[in-house]
Amino acid sequence: MATSNPSVFLLSVNGQIEGANFPCYDDLYCKYCFVYGQDWMPTTGLEEGITQITCKGRQSQKLIWNFPLDITFKSTNPSGWPQLVLSVYGPDVFGNDVVRGYGAIHIPLTPGKHKRTLPMFVPEPTWRLQKFTSWLWGRRPEYTDPKVVAQGEGREVTRVCSQGFVTVIFNIIMKDMKKLGYDSGPSTSSNAQPCGTASGWSTEEQTNL
Amino acid sequence: MASPGASAIRDKLRKQRRTLQETFVKLKHEGDDEQALVPSSGLSEESQHSTMNETQSSEDDPGETLKRTLRAQRQMRRKKLLEKLSAQNSPVEDIEEIPSVPLHSEDEGTGKISKVPSLTSLASKAPKSRASQQSDRFVTRRLEEKLKAARSQGESLRLQEASVVAAGRRRDRPKVTRSDREVDSDADSSQFLPQAASTRVKFRGPTEPVERNRVTADEAYNFFTINFEVQPEEKTSKKSRKSSKERKREEAQVQEEEDEERSQDPSQDHDEDEPLVQDEDGNVFVLEQTSKDFLEVKSAEYIGLRAFAVRHRPLIFTPSSRTVPTSAKLPENMTPRYLEDEGLYVGERLTVSPSNENILENRILRMEEGAKWFGDDGRIISLPDPIKESSSRPPLFHMEDDLDPALQTFYMKPLQSKHTNLSICAADAVLGDYQLDVDVSGLIFSHHPLFSREHVLASRLAQLYDQYLNRQRNNLTEHLTDKLNGLRNTMRNMLEIHSEQNLSQALQQRIVEYSMEVKNTRELRDGEQEKDRTLLKSLVKVWKELKALREHQRFINTPYKLFLRRETVDRESDEREYEKDILSEVWELEAEAEVDYQTKLSEYKKQLDEWKAWRKKQKSKKKKRKKKAQDETEEDDQEASEPEGPPDEGPSKPDTPEKLELDTIVKQVREKAARIRRKPGEAILIPELTASGNVSEGELCPRGEVARRHEVARRFIFVKILYNDKEVSQTNSFPLNPDFRVHFGQIFNLRIVNCPRSITLQVFEDLGSLYTMLAEVYVPVPPSSVLAGNSSIEEFEFSSNQREMFDHEGVGSGVPLSFTGDASDNVILLTSGKLSCCVSWGVGEDNVPLAPPLSQHPGAHHGGQYDAVSPLAPSGNVKKIGEWAMQSRLDPNDPVNASVMQMLKVASSGQVSAPDFFRLEQLQEEFNFASDEELARSRRFRLLALRSQEVPEFRNYKYVPSREREVSEKVFQGYEKRLKEGEMIDTKEHLDFHRALVAKYLQKIREAVIHRFLLASHHFLLSDMVIEEEMPCFGGARLRRVPDRHLRDSTEFLEMRSPKLLKMTGRAEMLKILGLNLFHLAEPKRPLRPQRKERKKVTAQNLSDGDIKLLVNILRAYDIPVRRSQGGKAGPSPQGAIQGSDWLVNHVQVRPFVEVSFQRNVFQTTTADGPNPCWNEELQLPFRAPNDDYSVASLQSVKDEVFINIFDEVVREMGARENGESPQTRVEKHWLGSVKIPFSTIYSQSRIEGTFKVKTPAVLLGYSKERSQPNAGVYESVHSLCQGAFITLFITIEPLLQPGESIREKIKELKFDSQEDERLLQAAERFERAAAEGFPGRPCATTAVDLNGKTVFITRYIRPLNPPPEIMSDQPQEDAIQVARFVSLIPSLPDKVSFSGICDLWSTCDQFLMLLAGDEEEHAVLLCNYFLFLGKKAWLIIGTAVPEGLSAYVLTLEQGRYLIWNPSSGQYYGQYDTFCPLQAVGCLVNADNVWLNIQEHVSPMRISFDVSRGVGWRPFFNRFFTHPGLSSVQPEELVYRGSDKTAAVELQERMEKLLRDKVMEWRPQRPTRWNRYCSSALKHFLPSLEQCAVALGSGAHDLAEGHRHELENLLGDNRISGFPLHMAFSEMGPIVEAVHSTGVHTIQTSNVEFALAVYVHPYPNNVLSVWVYLASLVRS
To answer: Are the C-beta atoms of residues B172 and B20 closer than 8 Å to each other?
Structure first.
């Protein structure tokens, strides 16, 4: 296996979907899937999954899933780097299962531990009456496929509304990237520098844990 | 220590202090954190003493002095705190020296030498100040004084103060060093190294001895709890912070004061102030961190709003909107400088409101390096206003109403030209194509940059010689001389004859005319003679110059030689002639002069008379006046008028005309003659230019010349040919000959399709790698009479204004050139030359001119005009622009005028070759990660590029290897093959040239459409992205169900894949929508009326192999052919016994089963019994998309068909073995019939349900179709028209795929352009919309898209058209069937397949017949048109049918009965036929109108077809919107090509061979034997079958009998099972597939023999009917 001339590189992703912060919603669950380019292939692990339903604690505002991710990809080409696509669902006032957020993020490009916070959003109804009826019937607008949030094409026709955040921890290991001539930069452990715009939020939440 | 090094250190110290100040301002609000840096009192103590020594240096700071008073005040306030501290101060002093010795000493040193360096540092601190040295010195002196005073004053305070200050200092110090490390890392290495590393932990080291004697409890606590990290400390400090609320208050106060101080501070001392403030401030914190604080636990405190605001004040900055004084914005002592005043261009500033600007300025000023945002004029630097003053679009001054009606624009539909149709079909190109032959023969330069001087002269010489020759040829002089002589003679004659008599008026007139003529001619001749003479002179002159030059340069470059041939003349006669000529001229001139004189004289006389009369008048006047005045006397009367005459209007006295003297005339004439004419007797000089001279060899020439010759040799010339401004070809590069001639001699044959507008030849020069275009030559398009044979080569001159200069002998071009030293004869020569070429129309093989008829190319006679337009010479324009620019005083620096200025500059500098382009991405090169060649070479890159271009073969290519070598060439083979095939017509595949052409053409259309589609597929609509509940319609309760979201998951797939198609639902729909899913439980488990539940649709994007299955539910069949008993045969078959027994029960028996094959996967049902079997079985067929591409477009273009074959299972007993074992049985299957359903139909319909007619062969050997049982009599009427077997099927795809309708709709929205009237289009749209709303599910078509992509109104397609005469007979009923059969024989190709379901194109009938492929609409239109021609009443039915879905049928009215024709099968059905595949009728179309079905029902059985009554049908054109008289798009008449018998025979043979090979290929295990007798017999049958099929198919039964008998006679005891297959011919593939699906080859018996016969019956226009007779024979 350990040839000096590999033809593929491997990207191993471990981690977990830690939890989410949706200020107004409760009893949510999350589905995830990976979207990747044509040159990528998952070798082991689950490509998609669904978490348990979590409700908020009495004190905490945070929903905890702690849902493990474990997948290994192999690829020949960095183009189409895998993305994690999350979609969060939960019941509305009438008990209908509605979507609470979509979000996507590229798997970090550097080895090490990464904590990422995904902002989530949902598509908006096209007009106001529709907004009301969709609320009433619990049939909110949804993406035809959650995977559309991983690509840019066609997004200009939609309007979305931001919802909340989901925190994901990635542990990345790579193999043979350098040998194939790809340099993904120095491996910085990003836990020293909290990332993202919502870093304040994440640390604050951490103290609440 | 007062070394320069120390001073440097000192500087650094200062710098640090400054940074400290800055950081302090920022950090002040983080006071909490800073406190946290000092975890314990012990620490604070040690930090105090460790920085003690530094206080000295800080005290040395001159600026500090100013703070004394303030500090004293503060001292009071702080007393309380200080008291606490004083107790601890003593030990601190003891160990003052301990902590860091080097630091201390250095600080001491710096303290001593502080004065001088401080000056420098001060100066350096304000590097921007432009103040003089003097002021500097003054400042320092003052500071020094202050310092002294301060020292003496501060000495007393020092002890107390020091500790306080130092503590704060200490606390800040680590920060300083930290920030310092970023600024200048090496600086602190010398001085602050001990401290640089001073984390708190380390610091504890040196202080330990101090603390050892008193370890307090909290210290111990700290020691064990401390983590030596920031966060835990923070926690502890938090506690301590909270404990003392007062402290914070104080802190705030201090800060407040500090702020005040700062604002009051003179700017000078500003820098030095801050550390002190900090110190004190920090002091406060440190003091509070006493040991008690850490143990105290207090309740959480509340920070008041005001306090909070105060605390945050330093954080928040509100810029004032007051105007900032200019001085603040500029560096000191600097007067604003206005660039405008200095004459520099300053654009107009953007208008910003002053208050906003002020705010911004204030804000910027607060920033670090804020000054850099300000320009020299004290304003913010800004770009000029980019908005143009005037809009670049010319304003519309008039509204439309005001516009002159003549200028009013009105919309006109573009006219469709015939040529688009001409060029549309490649097939036509074979018949009539046009060819232009462009012959580029050569090129001669009359000037070239590489000309040497000699060349210049030589070319001049050559030009002159050419001119000379030209003149010689025309010989105008001679001609004019002759004419003159003639005129003279006539005149002389006239005069001679009439001299005696009086000349009549007319004659006189004529003589005058003659003399005028003579005069004119003479003048012309003189001119010509002069020209001749000068030409000759200049020739000689140039030649002399050339000779002189050759002499001078001592080598010869050109082969030219001029000989002057003398032609001696007879002196005498010559002189006589000469004299005579002169005499006659003189005479003439004299006469003319005489005439002239006479006229002048008469004129004079007249004037003189006038004058005299006037003078008399004057005189008389004067006399009168004299009498009156009497004082003016003695004045000369005669001259009196002269002085005072001017006031009067008298004419002056005319001059007497002079008469020309004869002498002068003679003199003039002689002079002139001497000038322009050869002297009498002088030899006639005839120049002759030859190119026979020798050119000097290279060795003999100087270096410059050699270089020039080298350069010449390097140059290549080629010519590009542009047709209609498109490059079509180019000649090879030919080297430039040393004599600057290039010979191409190439003829280009241009096969043209478009009208010729222009032909341009571009002359290019090739300098190794660089091409430069020298010139463009416009060649007129020849008239069609100019053919290749009769055209002559013409020379076209060209020239170029390129500038070129050389340092060798080449003279260059566009540069002044002089032959003499003094540059007096400067000439500027431009590159020029002549291109000889010839353009003519080609001649075909059989001498047919390949020129279009005259009317075809209106552009032809315009061609000349086009060509004449040469690019405008810019010189005049530029000059004008220059003048204008001068006048209007354009600002040359204004970027708006840049282009004008650039142009002027270019024009004035003479540099004409300014680039006429600009680069959009000039840096692109830098970003290319590999060069283009590399990209092209690399297979991997190529693969990636092709994939991203979405080339079909690679669109879904996965896992492109990471390394080049892993990409094999094979990957591209298919693609390259396809590319190659695009050019090459593969006749082998198509067996027929015409069809191959058509296939290629179709392929092209398909590619174009697919390209369009790909573009469109990247445009998304909201509905493509987001699923949204449609607004419910409250009244109609039409609530569309939206698929549940996560049912699209893989987990749910499993559930959905369960074969239960018939899911039961109740009527809980409504409730479910309200979210009450519980009601599902209450649903009846088995409702009485189960309905098929609508399944969720799946978008195709997330599918992969194996996900899609085709579900085929085979329910039952009717009227399967039954086995014919082989009774009457000699040897009873083994089956005979069984049959015999069955005969009693059921007369005959059949055991049918159904085999479904799809993509070569075969599944079969169980075997049932009898001719009306019921299977009710479901088969699942896996589906694989081509290229693994499961996109909608790909799925729609799947061409595969589902074959549903009905077989009869025959069990035969093998002959019993010798050893008496039980007889073996063997199962044989016999094909009975099949149903074909294309996958595309299933996909677009999403499900297919119904009873289909099984296509059974006309003759089925061994079976009989009779089911004429007497008990069936009741249904006789029903079955009257439809015979044959039927099968009931239900087919669907699992999971339910989203059909590509959305895409089609999207394309519809792209709107095809149209030539129809806008009103009509709108009406059509309204009509269709109304139909869709009022009658959903009823297809309604009013417009169609033709092959050009234009929308055409549908009625235009209907027009009576003549069927081919060959198939017509005299019986009308026969004709109808014949015609229907002919139409059905045209292969069917669904548009969905060819165009990926993107659009449905309707071709006209002639296009259809030419393409020989089309779908139902085309068939229907053609059939309808034929029927109309036959005089029937016929309509087009747009409706839905099984299995096609949306389709078109034809309706005819015959003898009061309506017949429905299926155009693709040729079948017809009565209106009340049960098995009519037409399920719903949407609308009817004929040439006049479109009627929408508005009856309650759609089924043809239940509706009335009578459109004349307005009840059931809504017409499109009615009383209000009448038919506008739309002309038809169909041709007036169809022209058919006769049937090609020989091609048919050839095709027949090839097909037979191919099928034979295939059958053998499918039987790899066993030998395949062919029975020749049988084959020939079968072959014999086939034509009769064709005949029979034509003749209504009635005699089929008899025919089968006949065949059987014949075969039995022929082959004796063989058991034969076989059948003929019949189909329309399109390609080989489907036929092979059909044969394969019958499964004849699967017979496993060893002694089987096969027979195969193929018959191709040709119909007109290459429509072919193919029969394949297949039989297997088993010897019994």
So the answer is: yes
